C-alpha cells in the first residue's frame, strides 16, 4: 500500500477546504480552513518532495483560483506575504543574532519612500528637468537598489549602538524609527522631499513586461484585473527568495556565528568570532529584506504616507516573530500569517458582527444582573481597534508560557 | 534678536517644567534598572495611569458639584496623593504579575514581556474609558487657582500651574533623596542595586525591596502624570509613549541606575527641548521648526551613546557576570 493514510488525509483536507471556499466564497471560516492547509502540509508525515508539490499546488494554482473568484482573498494573501517577508527579516535580527530591534519599520519605510519618491512626480520637486516619474521598468533596479540602501542604513545605525549593552539597542532603534518617521512627516519644507503628512501618490506599478506574451497566446486581459495576480506572484517570489537566502545563511558559518553570539557573546568572542562585525551583518541583512519589501509595498499601494510606518507596525512584526518562535523560519511564516489574518479577518469580523448585534437591539436576560439591551454596548467598543491589546497579550502570554514560540527551531545535530 | 531675548524667560520656565517632568519619570526607569538591570518598558503607562486617576477624580468632584466649594489645596493634595498611590500600586502589581515570573530567564524575555504589558495597558485603559465615558480623550477640568499668573518682575509672568509643577517636583525629589540615602529602606534599595546576592545574605528581603522600588518609581511616575495633566490638560491612553521614551533618554543621559543622574538628565533634556522648540526656527529662518524637537531628544540619545555611553554622571550598575 504505497498511498498511505497521511497522503489521503492531506490531499483530502486540501480538496475539502478548497471546495468549501468555492461553495461559500464570502465565508471567513472557510478561507481560514483553506489557509491552514499549508500548515497541514507542513505537519503531515509525508516525504519532502510530496510536501513541496502540494505546497506548490496550493500557492500557485488553488489560491490564485480563489483570488479570481473573490479578489479580497488575493489582497489578504499579498498582505500576508508582505508581513511574512518583514517577519523573516526581523527574525534574523531578533531570532538568530538575539538583538531586539524595535524600529524595524524604519527600514521598511526607507524602502517604500525610495520608490515612492522616484516612481512618482514627487522627485521633480527637488531635481530639476522634469525627469520623473521614472518609467515602471525602473522598478526592478530600485528593488535591487533598496537592498543596498537598507543594508547601508542598517549598518550606519548599528555601528554606534552595537558595541553597547543589548537592551540599549532596543530603545535606540525605537528612537531611530521615530526620527525616520518625524523626518518623513516634516521634510515637505524647506525642500519638499517627502510631501509630509499628505503622502505621495501616484506611485508607478511594476512593468507588465509579460503582456506581449499573453497577447501572443490570445489572452487580452485588462491591466487592472491583472495587477492583483501580478503582485501576488511577485510577493510570493520575493518571499521564496528570502526564505532560501535565510535558510542558506542559517546553515552557513555566518548563521552559526550568529547563534553563538546569541547564546553567549563572551564565549563567541573567545572562539574568534568577530562579534561586532557579525552583529552588523545580521542587522544589515534584516534591514535589506525590510527595505526591499517596502519598495513592493509602495508600488502596490500606489499611495503611501507616514501613517503606515508607526511603532505599531514594528511591534506587530515583533509579535509575529515571537508567536511563531524566535529563530525559526517556519515559525516566522506561521506567526506572520496568523497575526495578519487575526488582524484583517477575525477582529474585523467580530467588529462587524458586534455592529449588527448592536443594531438588532436584542435584549439579553442575564440572571441576577437583570435585562441588558445589546444596543447599550458603547459604539467605542470595537475589537478591530484594540490590536495593541492583542499584540500585548500575545507578547506577555508567549513569554510566560512558551518563550520558544509555536514552532520553535529544530536543533540540528552536528555531523 | 529682540524677539529671541523677549521669549527667553518663557523658554526657561517651559524648560524647567519639562525638565522636572522628565526627571520624575526618569527616576522610575533608573531605579528599576538599578535593582533589576531591566528596562521597565511599561513605566510610561504607569505615568499615564497617574494622569487618568487625576482626571477621573477631578471629573467626579466636578459632577458632584464640590470642585468649586472645596479648598483648592485640599483638591490638589487629594489628586496628587491618589495618583501617586494608585500608580505605585499598579507598578507593584505589574512587577508581580508580568515580571517576577520571568526573573532568571534571558533578559530579552523580560523586556519583551514589558513591551507587551505596555501595549496591553494602553488599550486596557482605552477600553475602560470607552465603556465608562464613551470617549478616551479626556481633558482636565479647570481649576481657577492654576490659571492665575504670578508676575516675577522684568516683564516675566509665570502661570501658577508651572510653579506648582516646579515646587512639587523639587519637594518630592528632595524627599526621595532623603529616603534613598538616610533611611534603612533606602539603604536596602542601594544594597540590592549593588549586589542582590550579597544583600540577600545580609538578611535583606530582596523581593520585597524590588517591590518597594517599583512602588517608589511608580509613585514618581504617577506624580508626573498628574502634574502633566494639570499642566497640559489633555490626556489620552497613548500620551505616555513619547514622554516615556524621552524620560528613558534622560535616564541614560544622566547615567542609568544613578538617581541624581536621572534628575540632571531630565533637566538637561527638558531645557534642550524647550530651547530647540523655540529657537530652532529663529536660527534657521523658519526652515526647521518646533516639529523637530522630538527628533532632537533621540539625536541626543544616540550622540551620548556614541560619545559617553556611561552618561553624564556615570552609570551605577553591576559589572557583567557579577
Kindly describe this structure:
The complex is a heterodimer of chains A (415) and B (322). With 415 residues, chain A is an all-alpha fold. Chain A is built from 16 helices and 2 strands. A two-stranded antiparallel sheet of chain A has the order 1-2. In chain A, helix 6 (105-118) packs antiparallel against helix 7 (139-161). The longest helix of chain A has 32 residues, at 329-360. The radius of gyration of chain A is 23 Å and the shape is globular. In chain B, a hairpin with a 5-residue loop joins strand 2 (149-151) and strand 3. Chain B is mostly helical. In chain B, the strands form 2 sheets. Chain B has a two-stranded antiparallel sheet with strand order 1-4. In chain B, strands 2-3 form a two-stranded antiparallel ribbon. Chain B is globular and about 60 Å long. Classes of the chains: A mainly alpha (415), B mainly alpha (322). At the A-B interface, helix 8, helix 14 and helix 16 of A face helix 5, helix 11 and helix 13 of B.
Topology:
The complex is a heterodimer of chains A (about 425) and B (about 325).
Chain A: H1 5-23, H2 28-35, H3 37-43, H4 48-69, H5 71-96, H6 105-118, H7 139-161, H8 166-186, H9 211-216, H10 223-250, H11 253-263, H12 265-270, H13 275-301, H14 311-324, H15 329-360, E1 363-366, E2 370-373, H16 387-401
Antiparallel strand pairs in A: 1-2
Chain B: H1 2-6, H2 8-36, H3 43-63, H4 72-99, H5 107-133, E1 138-139, H6 144-147, E2 149-151, E3 157-159, H7 160-182, H8 184-194, H9 196-201, H10 206-232, E4 234-235, H11 241-254, H12 259-283, H13 293-307
Amino acid at each position: 500500500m504505497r498511498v498511505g493514510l497521511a497522503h489521503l488525509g492531506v490531499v483530502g483536507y486540501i480538496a475539502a477546504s478548497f471546495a468549501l471556499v468555492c461553495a461559500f466564497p464570502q465565508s471567513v471560516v472557510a478561507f481560514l480552513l483553506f489557509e491552514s492547509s499549508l500548515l497541514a502540509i507542513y505537519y503531515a508525515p509525508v516525504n519532502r518532495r510530496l510536501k513541496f508539490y502540494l505546497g506548490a499546488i496550493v500557492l500557485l494554482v488553488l489560491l490564485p483560483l480563489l483570488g479570481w473568484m473573490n479578489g479580497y482573498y488575493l489582497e489578504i494573501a499579498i498582505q500576508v506575504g508582505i508581513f511574512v517577508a518583514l517577519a523573516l527579516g526581523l527574525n534574523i535580527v531578533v531570532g538568530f543574532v538575539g538583538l531586539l530591534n524595535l524600529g524595524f519599520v524604519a527600514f521598511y519605510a526607507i524602502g517604500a519612500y525610495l520608490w515612492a519618491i522616484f516612481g512618482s512626480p514627487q522627485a521633480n520637486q527637488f531635481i530639476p528637468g522634469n525627469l520623473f516619474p521614472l518609467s515602471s521598468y525602473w522598478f526592478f533596479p530600485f528593488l535591487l537598489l533598496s537592498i543596498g540602501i537598507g543594508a547601508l542604513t542598517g549598518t550606519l545605525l548599528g555601528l554606534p549602538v552595537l558595541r553597547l549593552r543589548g537592551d540599549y539597542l532596543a530603545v535606540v532603534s525605537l528612537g531611530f524609527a521615530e526620527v525616520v518617521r518625524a523626518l518623513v512627516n516634516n521634510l515637505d519644507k524647506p525642500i519638499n522631499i517627502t510631501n509630509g503628512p499628505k503622502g505621495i501618490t501616484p506611485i508607478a506599478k511594476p512593468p507588465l513586461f509579460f503582456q506581449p506574451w499573453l497577447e501572443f497566446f490570445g489572452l487580452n486581459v485588462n491591466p487592472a484585473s491583472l495587477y492583483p495576480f501580478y503582485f501576488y506572484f511577485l510577493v510570493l517570489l520575493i518571499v521564496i527568495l528570502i526564505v532560501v537566502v535565510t535558510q542558506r545563511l542559517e546553515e552557513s558559518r555566518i548563521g552559526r556565528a550568529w547563534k553563538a553570539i546569541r547564546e553567549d557573546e563572551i564565549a563567541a568572542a573567545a572562539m574568534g568570532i568577530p562579534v561586532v562585525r557579525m552583529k552588523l551583518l545580521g542587522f544589515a541583512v534584516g534591514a535589506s529584506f525590510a527595505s526591499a519589501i517596502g519598495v513592493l509595498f509602495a508600488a502596490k499601494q500606489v499611495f503611501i504616507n507616514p501613517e503606515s510606518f508607526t511603532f505599531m507596525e514594528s511591534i506587530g512584526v515583533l509579535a509575529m516573530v515571537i508567536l511563531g518562535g524566535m529563530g525559526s523560519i517556519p515559525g516566522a511564516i506561521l506567526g506572520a500569517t496568523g497575526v495578519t489574518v487575526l488582524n484583517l479577518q477575525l477582529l474585523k469580523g467580530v467588529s462587524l458582527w458586534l455592529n449588527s448585534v448592536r443594531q438588532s437591539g436584542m435584549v439579553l436576560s442575564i440572571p441576577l444582573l437583570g435585562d441588558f439591551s445589546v444596543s447599550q454596548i458603547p459604539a467605542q467598543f470595537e475589537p478591530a481597534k484594540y490590536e495593541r491589546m492583542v499584540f500585548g497579550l500575545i507578547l506577555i502570554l508567549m513569554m510566560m508560557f512558551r518563550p520558544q514560540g509555536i514552532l520553535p527551531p529544530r536543533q540540528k545535530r552536528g555531523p | 534678536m529682540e524677539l529671541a531675548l523677549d521669549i527667553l524667560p518663557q523658554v526657561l520656565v517651559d524648560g524647567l517644567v519639562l525638565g522636572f517632568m522628565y526627571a520624575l519619570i526618569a527616576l522610575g526607569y533608573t531605579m528599576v534598572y538599578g535593582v533589576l538591570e531591566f528596562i521597565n518598558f511599561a513605566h510610561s503607562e504607569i505615568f499615564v495611569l497617574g494622569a487618568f486617576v487625576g482626571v477621573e477624580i477631578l471629573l467626579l468632584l466636578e459632577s458632584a458639584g464640590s470642585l468649586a466649594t472645596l479648598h483648592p489645596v485640599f483638591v490638589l493634595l487629594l489628586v496628587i496623593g491618589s495618583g501617586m498611590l494608585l500608580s505605585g500600586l499598579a507598578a507593584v502589581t505589574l512587577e508581580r504579575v508580568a515580571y517576577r515570573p520571568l526573573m532568571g530567564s534571558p533578559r530579552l524575555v523580560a523586556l519583551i514581556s514589558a513591551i507587551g504589558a505596555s501595549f496591553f495597558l494602553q488599550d486596557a485603559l482605552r477600553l475602560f474609558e470607552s465603556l465608562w465615558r464613551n470617549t478616551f480623550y479626556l481633558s482636565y477640568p479647570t481649576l481657577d487657582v492654576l490659571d492665575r499668573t504670578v508676575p516675577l518682575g522684568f516683564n516675566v509672568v509665570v502661570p501658577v500651574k508651572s510653579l506648582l509643577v516646579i515646587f512639587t517636583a523639587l519637594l518630592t525629589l528632595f524627599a526621595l533623596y532623603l529616603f534613598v540615602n538616610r533611611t534603612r529602606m533606602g539603604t536596602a534599595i542601594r544594597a540590592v542595586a549593588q549586589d542582590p546576592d550579597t544583600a540577600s545574605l545580609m538578611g535583606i528581603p530582596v523581593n520585597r525591596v524590588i517591590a518597594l522600588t517599583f512602588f517608589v518609581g511608580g509613585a514618581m511616575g504617577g506624580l508626573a502624570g498628574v502634574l502633566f495633566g494639570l499642566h497640559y490638560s489633555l490626556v489620552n491612553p497613548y500620551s505616555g509613549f513619547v514622554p516615556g521614551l524621552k524620560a528613558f533618554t534622560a535616564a541614560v543621559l544622566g547615567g542609568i541606575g544613578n538617581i541624581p543622574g536621572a534628575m540632571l538628565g531630565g533637566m538637561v533634556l527638558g531645557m534642550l527641548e524647550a530651547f530647540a522648540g523655540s529657537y530652532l526656527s529663529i536660527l534657521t529662518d523658519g526652515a526647521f521648526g518646533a516639529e523637530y524637537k522630538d527628533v532632537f531628544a533621540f539625536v541626543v540619545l544616540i550622540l551620548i551613546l556614541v560619545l559617553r555611553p556611561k552618561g553624564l554622571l556615570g552609570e551605577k550598575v553591576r559589572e557583567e557576570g557579577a
